[in-house]
Amino acid sequence: MAVTARNLRWPWIAIGISLAVSFAMAMTSPADDVQGDLVRIMYVHVPSAWLAYTAFFVTFVGSLVYLVTRNLKADRVAAASAEIGVFFTGLALALGMIWAKPTWGVWWTWDARLTLTAIMFFVYLGYLALRRTTDDPVMRASRASVLGVLGAIQIPIVHFSVVWWRTLHQPPSIIRPDGPSIQDPMMLATLIISVVAFTVVYVSLMFKRIELIHLDDERRAVEDSPDRPVAGEAVTVPELGAN
Amino acid sequence: MTAGFWHQVRAVIDRDLLRERRSGDVLWITIPFGALALLLVPLAVGTDAELLREIGVGMYWVIVMLFGVLVAVGKASKETIPQQDASSLLGLDPAAGFIGRTVSSAILLLAFEVVVGVVAVGLYNLDVLGPAWLILTMIIAAIGLALLGTLTASIVNSTSAGTALVPLLVAPLSVPLLLGATQAYDGLRYGHAIVSWVLLMVAVATVVAMIGVLTARPLQES
Amino acid sequence: MSDPSTAPAADPEKAPSSADAAAAPLVVLDGVGVRMGSTQILRDVNLEIGPGEVVGLFGANGAGKTTALRLIATLIRPAQGAGTVLGADLASPDRYDVRRRIGMVGHVPGLFPELTLAENLQYAGRVAGVPTVRVPEALAAVGLSGAADRLAGASSHGMQRRTEFARELMIDRSLLLLDEPHSALDRNAVDLVEGLIERKAAEGGAVIVVSHDRDRINAIAHRSVELAGGTLT
Questions:
Q1: Structural domain of C67
Q2: How far apart are CA A134 and CA A122, in angstroms?
Q3: Angle at CA B60, nearest 5°, toward B59 and B63?
Q4: How many domains does chain C have?
């Protein structure tokens, strides 16, 4: 079976256009009255956080579908989404910290959303670590799917627990850690367009990642030819040296 | 779940507790390690009595969550492939195996909590408030952590990382147990609501128990 | 490649009874392949074993004999082909339901080292639903009455294997899989193993024996198959 390269081009074009539009609007939208130009981080931070949650929801759905149908395609969608989700979660956390330091004077605040995002990051790092340690595709899909469902179902419980915890332990500072309220229509429009643009980036990356998975499957199919030697053929009759 | 199912559960519990009695891993290694960790904390943060009293309960539960995973993983991880094959060919229902291992882990975890709890009370001068509520939260925490540990041990079984991966998987998912246990104590201390936190812990345990039982056979089959 | 199920018996006097021969086969493998990760271990395996049959399975080191046994024990899923064991499809979850009727004494003992030999059998009995009063009798049958309270981890390999044979005496099995059963056993225990094999076949069960000792196995088996190149001949 020959390996066919699909090499979809449109995802890269879509990513390029989306990021270009988002960047242009972020650079031309007005500065914040209090934070100045620092507020422009919001146009990457907020969409990244949105994508993180979306990606992990897709992982949950893919995992559930696999457990019910045993269709490996569902597992691959779950895995691809988790990879992208971990990246954007890390990005959201990093940008959040960069934004927090000059704004609030601290790298980190223990507000519910940030704390939950950090916990989710580790849950899905664990998911990817599990996938890396399992060679057999069916075993990998089964194990990862259970973890994908377990992690996702636990997230709302974790969310409630952290929100209640923060409700009891509000920081004494008057600074509200849930970000500025957006009143300027241009800023709001920029934020919405950024969220849409990043969603296009996510979908495009999913297509490319799944394309890579298909290519890998085709490579395996080539390697799995009926004439491929079995493991036992590596063991031969011992040959004692001359004399 | 027939009467035979629960006999199998009981057989697995007895097996694991007997193995622990003979090997003494939890009693002689994990519990002392947990107590040692409590001893190390003041060396790092300072010995101010009021500070230690303030953070003592939190430190205790963090140690339970992190070290407790070792208790939960220890029994399950010690089954070799031939042992698993033998149990499987005896007709051991995977769900019965899961429940049995969880119960035995929960019993050992409770022992861990009690002994390390006594050490924490002594070292950090903690008040033992509302004993009934404390015992309840300890029991639910033990069950919840045992469920998480046993389920994730099944997930990583036969993978190349093995049980080394379990703490990374369990720790973030045990956050509601951690918060529930610490906030329940704060509730006793400052008069906040306790029931909601206890119910949160029960919710965690229930969700994980359902997932564990439902996926026991698919995980073994994979 | 010949179909081993129609090959002549190694010794006509040792052929299964006609009643057994007419009954449904206990093991049917049709073009089965097994992979571990990306490594192909078995390929295009065809095998049929009926009630009352004793089949020897031979092959070089690394040929996949233990894998074949674990496949027939329903502990491994086939990657290619199809098969049934005791009527259960190897690819379906139903194979769990027949495991209780399959006995296997593997190359590596599956006892718990922290339990005594007797406690290991009691655990097995409790899980399998067999009265644990049979434990002393089973240990006596394998000559381990005096070592019942010895920890499995402190027992020799041969003693652990005897204990596993005791387990198989306790539990009613339709299919018995033995991986190098003579390994680590003294002469008396070897006789025990062969007695167990003959008894199982007489009861209408089937036995598959993996061994390097061809002469000894051919003396008791109805036929033998060779595993080479990942397939049976």
A1: 4-232
A2: 19
A3: 85
A4: 1
Cβ–Cβ gap C38/A220 under 8 Å:
yes
Tell me how close the Cα of B155 comes to any Cα of chain C, in angstroms.
17
Looking at chain B, which subunits does it touch, using at least 3 CB pairs closer than 8 Å as the criterion?
A, C
Q: What is the DSSP letter of B163?
A: G
CB A117 within 8 A of CB A93: yes
C175 strand-pairing partners: C102, C206
Alpha-carbon span B72 to B102, nearest angstrom: 8
> Between chains, do C40 and A233 touch, taking CB under 8 Å as contact?
no
pLDDT of chain C, 233 residues: tens digit per residue: 233 333 334 444 455 555 555 578 999 999 999 988 778 889 999 999 999 999 999 988 888 899 999 999 999 889 889 999 999 999 888 888 899 999 999 989 999 999 999 999 999 999 999 999 999 999 999 999 999 999 999 999 999 999 999 999 999 899 999 999 887 777 877 888 888 899 999 998 999 999 888 888 888 899 999 988 788 87
Reported for C86-90, long-range contacts at CB under 8 A and 24+ positions apart, including other chains, are C86/C26, C86/C27, C86/C174, C86/C175, C87/C24, C90/C32
Q: Are B176 and A157 in contact (CB under 8 A)?
A: yes
Over residues A33-68, the pLDDT tens digits come to 777 888 888 889 889 988 988 999 999 999 999 999
- The answer to whether the Cβ–Cβ distance between A150 and B158 falls below 8 Å is no
Q: Which residue of A has its CA nearest to C231?
A: A230
Q: Looking at residue C194, which CATH number applies to its domain?
A: 3.40.50.300
Residue type, C152: A
ipTM topping 0.95: no
Contacts of A164 in chain B (CB under 8 A): 179, 183, 196-197, 200
Nearest to B207 among A126, A133, A154 (CB): A154
Neighbours of B28 (CB within 10 A): 10
The interface residues of chain C toward chain B in range 27-86, judged by CB-CB distance below 8 A, are: 70, 73, 75, 77
User: Which of C1, C36, C38 to substitute to test the interface with A, most A CBs within 10 Å?
Assistant: C38
3-state secondary structure of C151: strand
Contact B221 C111 (CB under 8 A): no
Predicted TM-score (pTM) of the model is: 0.86
CA distance A109 to A175: 11
Give the residue carrying structure tokens 């271990």: C41
The pLDDT tens digits of the residues spanning B99-132 come to 999 999 999 999 999 999 999 999 999 988 889 9
In the numeric block, the tokens 């060396």 are attached to B43
pLDDT of residue A111: 78
Q: Which of B159, B183, B215 sits opposite A168 (nearest CB)?
A: B183
